[in-house]
Amino acid sequence: MKASNLFVKCLEAEGVKLIFGVPGEENLDLLESLRNSSISFITTRHEQAAVFMAATMGRLTGKAGVALATLGPGATNLVTGIAHAQLGGMPLLVITGQKPIRKSKQGRFQIIDVVEMMKPLTKMTETVVSADRIPSLVRQAFKLAEAERPGAVHLELPEDIAVENSEVMPIVPVKVRRSGPDPKAVEQAISLIVKAKSPVLLIAAGANRKLIRKNLQALIDKTKIPFVTTQMGKGVIDETSDLFLGTTALSAGDYVHCALEQSDCVVVVGHDITEKPPVILISQERSVVHINFNEAEVDDVYIPTLEIVGDVSHSLWAITENIQAQEHWDFNIFNKFKNKLLAHLQEKISSDEFPIKPQRVVYTLREVLPADGILALDNGMYKIWIARNYFAREQNSVLLDNALATMGAGLPAAMAAKLVYPEKPVIAIVGDGGFMMSAQELETAKRLGLNLVVLIINDSGYGMIKWKQQGSLMEDFALSFSNPDFVKFADSFGIQGVRINAASELAPALKRGLAHPGIFLIDCPIDYSENNIVFNQELKKDLCKI
Fold first, then answer.
1. In terms of Cα–Cα distance, which of 274, 413, 249 is closest to 344?
2. Under CATH, domain 183-339 is a member of which superfamily?
3. Taking the complete model, does pTM exceed 0.90, yes or no?
4. How far, in whole angstroms, is CA 385 from its chain's centroid?
5. Which top CATH class is 346-537?
C-alpha cells in the first residue's frame, strides 16, 4: 500500500471523520489519499483556525481532532492553536508536510526544524522516516493525545516517505481502562470531609466528562455539599442548583472567594494549575483534597493536603458509597455570600442605557438560549462577565479558554461546536479585536452551510487590557483602534448582519439570528466602563464582612 494511503487508513481506524487545514504541495499525496477516503477535509482560510477547530472537536468528543498544514510557514501558523490545545487539555493531532528527507533539490527553502519547534508544545512529536512505521506512530499519537491529561501531538510526513510502499497494516485501537483510586486515599479523603465544619466542592476542567458528571451529581445529591466552578468547569453540574455558589471568574476578591475562604475543606475535582488559579489553595490554611487523573503539580498557589489519583469518576463513586451527610456541617455562611452574589448579579440587567451594559448582554443571552444552547467565547472582558453572571446548565454549553486564553479562537470553536452538535443553537461571542483575528473564517462557515450566530462585542479596543491599565492607574495608551462596518463586512461574504442601536434590540436580534438559516452577525456596541466600576471599585471593598 502507498504510504499516504496507509496513513489515511490508520486515521480511519482511529475513527477520524473530519480533518481541518490548509494544504501545501508537500501534502498533495496525503490529500489525494484523503480524497478517496471516508474522511472529509475542511479547507480553512488560515492554519490557526484549522487547529482551533480541531482542538475544539477534541474537547467536545474526547477523540483527538486532526489538523493539517504544510511545512515552514504552514507549520508555524499552527503553533498558537497547538499551545491552546496543550494547555487546555484538548486531544489534538497535527500533521505537517516536509520536503524529501533523503534527497532534495530545493536546499533549505522553507525548511525549519518543525519537530524541534513542536517539542515544548506537545506530548509527542515525530518525523515519519519509513512507511512501515506509520501504523505504530499514528496509534501512539492518538493514544497519547487522548490519555489523561489530554493534549497535542504532532507527526511530520515528508514527501518522499508519503510515496513509499508498505505491507504493514493499520493497528486497531484497543480501549485502555484507567486504574482506580487507592482505597486508603479514599478513606482519608472521607475522613477529612466528614470532620470538616464547612466542606465545599471546587469543580474544574478535568471534571468535564460525562461519567464524572453523573457520579459528581450523585455525591452532591447525597451530601448536599455546596459547589463552586472554575471558568473551565462551568456546566459540569447545573448551575441553577441551590447548592451552586458561583464561578471563580476572577482570581480573588469576589463573593465566591469569600465563601471559599470560609471553608475548612476544599475538595478539588479535576483541577490543575494550567488553568488560571481560581483561588490560592494551600494546605497550611485548610484541607485541600485533590481528585484527578494525575498527581498534582505543586505550586505556590496549589498545595494539596491529600491526593486521590486515578479514574476521577471511580474516585467520586467510591467517596459517595462510603460517606454520609453530617449534622455538624454548617453551610449558612456560604448561603449568605451566595445571596449577596445573586443580588449583585441582578444589577443593571434591565438597564436601557446604550451602548449596552455587559450585565444586560449576559442576562439576555441566558434568557434567549435554551439549556443546551452553546456559547463559544473568544478571549476578552466579556469572558469574565459571562463566567461570573451566566449560569450554565449543561456540560460544554460554555466553551471558553482559561489556560492559554488566546484571542482568535472563538469563531473557529463555535464552528466546530456546530459541526459536532448541528441540532443545538450556537453563538460565537467575540470581541472586535479577537474577531478580526479570525474574521476570514466567515467564508469557511458559509461554505459549510452552518447555522451560527456571531455576536461581536464592540468597544473599539482591547477592553481587557484597558481594564488592567485603568486599574493600575495608568493613562489610556496604545489599546484603541477603529473598526470596519461589520454589517457591510458580513454582507461582502453574503452573510446577513445587524447593528444594535438600543439595548432593547439585542434580544430580538439574537432570536432572529438563532432562527436564521445560515450565519447571522450582530454588531453590539458595549459600555465597558462597568469593568472599572464593578471589578476595580465595587469588588475591591471588603466583601467578606457580613
1. 249
2. TPP-binding domain (3.40.50.1220)
3. yes
4. 16
5. alpha beta
